[in-house]
Design goal:
By secondary structure, this protein is α/β, with parallel strands linked by helices. Helix content is 41%, strand content 15%.
């Protein structure tokens, strides 16, 4: 495939494998295993698997491989390995890399399940984890040690949309030989080039923008071929977190329109943020490409667009936030994001409810904070819906 293609062309054409029938749409190879022409061929394949050879669906599959190659081309990565969900991808990345006695530094603003893996699971097995304010480069520098094995952060945090300086953190981490792992879901592969900016490994929940229509779970890890094939692949192959061929096919078809969808939703998100800033019922509007955002300059420099998510801090706390949520007519109450439908959630009682009140306060997750994932609806209709719901608070 051409390496000179632009994003939209890559999203439609990269990674295609056609069978002998010459199908136009990517085929779903819904099979658990693969047959061999001879015992000798089977023996050879178990010694070394070729680029277009497969053994067992837990190890690899033609449809899954199409998806891996397409997203690797989009991201500019040497290789990729798909997983059953975004959290399976995060878990496999850190568990395949780390062992007892290793040291990790992470930003403190994390999705609840990521925090659970780092704070509870890794420490249970003897990995030392330090958490820092991800926006403070001095805090990263102070926490890093000569024996730090890895750093982990969300390039844009959930749900307060803090933006991490990828180049700055990566430079500090590389000085001590640490691997940089970036969860890039909120920034999206359309607006962020985390690998180019210094990250070594990028992780996505493909459940979000890449599917983009609320259908399937999926995840993917991208990085060097050495990391993907020698470190990550053995762990995922033997622990069973494989992406199903059907889900991989859904992700492939989602990628056809990924650039169009993300840009349309981001344009609407910016319009909503600009229109709602200063509203009397809101304590604050959080969106990376608003000039009032604490990391606005960094966000403009690091991300082509501000993303599809904004957060609204509704004056009056939980009761007011619940009134707002229940009054919405177009926006759907759910806990996903990156969907074609606009989705709202109340992080303090859902995605981040397991955190203590003190932890939520430190992260800026107030009782009035609402996360709004903007979909593909008309921008004017969405603004009217949000405004009428605020009027009922």
């Amino acid at each position: 495939m051409s390496k000179d293609w632009n994003t939209r062309t890559k999203l439609v054409h990269e990674g295609i494998r056609r069978s002998q029938y010459g199908e136009v749409s990517e085929a779903i190879f819904l099979t658990q295993g693969f047959v061999y022409d001879s015992a000798e061929q089977a023996e050879a394949r178990f010694i070394e698997v070729g680029d277009d050879e497969f053994i067992y669906a837990r190890y690899g599959n033609p449809t899954v491989r199409m998806f891996e190659e397409r997203i690797a081309a989009l991201e500019g990565a040497e290789d990729a390995f798909a997983a059953a969900s975004g959290m399976a991808a995060v878990n496999a990345t850190v568990m395949s890399l780390l062992k007892s006695g290793d040291h990790v530094v992470s930003s403190r603003a994390l999705f609840g399940s990521c925090l659970y893996i780092l704070e509870t699971i890794l420490t249970r097995y003897g990995v030392e984890v330090d958490f820092v304010d991800g926006t403070d480069l001095d805090a990263w520098k102070a926490a890093l040690r000569p024996d730090t094995k890895a750093v982990f952060f969300e390039t844009m945090s959930n749900p307060t949309l803090e933006v991490i300086d990828i180049e700055g953190v990566s430079a500090l981490a590389h000085e001590v030989g640490a691997l940089v792992i970036a969860d890039n879901v909120f920034a999206t592969p359309i607006f962020s080039r985390a690998l180019e900016q210094g990250a070594d490994v990028v992780v996505y929940s493909t459940t979000k923008h890449i599917d983009g229509q609320g259908r399937c779970l999926g995840g993917v890890v991208l990085g060097t071929r050495d990391f993907i094939r020698k470190t990550l692949e053995p762990y995922l192959k033997h622990t069973g977190g494989a992406l199903s061929p059907f889900n991989a096919w859904v992700m492939l078809k989602g990628m056809d329109t990924l650039d169009l969808r993300v840009r349309a939703s981001s344009d609407t998100a910016l319009k909503l943020a600009q229109s709602l800033e200063g509203h009397g019922k809101l304590s604050r509007v959080i969106y990376p490409h608003l000039a009032s955002h604490p990391q606005f300059d960094l966000a403009k420099r690091q991300m082509e667009g501000g993303g599809t998510v904004l957060s609204l801090d509704i004056a009056g706390g939980k009761e007011a936030a619940f009134r707002f949520l229940n009054a919405l007519e177009i926006c759907t109450i759910s806990n996903n994001l990156g969907d074609s439908k606009s989705i709202v959630t109340h992080p303090a009682t859902t995605t981040h409810q397991r955190l203590t009140p003190e932890q939520r306060a430190a992260l800026g997750i107030t009782e009035g904070l609402v996360r709004l994932s903007v979909g593909l609806e008309d921008a004017g209709d969405l603004l009217k819906d949000v405004e009428q719901a605020l009027a009922r608070v």
